[in-house]
Design goal:
This protein has about 80 residues and is α+β, with helices and mostly antiparallel strands. About 45% of the residues lie in helices and about 30% in strands.
């Protein structure tokens, strides 16, 4: 499976990413081994998760989410109930 996720960082900012193993990726982010953006902003908390059958679908959705405004991302999080 392929996942697109939104994290809330300790400073309140949001980070959107893609992975095939959400548990491993969250551990990496929270150990300071994730991307440069979250390295100085952990711990992070999973706020939104979407599952896709293909990498292409997931990457397309990741790009779409990254284009959203902060308020639109917060609405997406609210609607997902996480």
């Amino acid at each position: 499976m392929n996942y697109v996720y939104i994290l809330e960082c300790k400073d309140g900012t949001l980070y959107t990413g893609w992975t095939t193993d959400i548990d491993r990726r969250l551990e990496e982010h929270n150990a300071g081994l994730g991307c440069k953006y979250t390295r100085s902003r952990y711990p992070v908390e999973l706020r939104h998760l979407e599952e896709f059958a293909t990498k292409e679908e997931a990457l397309s959705r990741e790009i779409a989410i990254k284009k959203l405004s902060r308020s639109q991302k917060l609405e997406l999080i609210k609607d997902s109930g996480q």
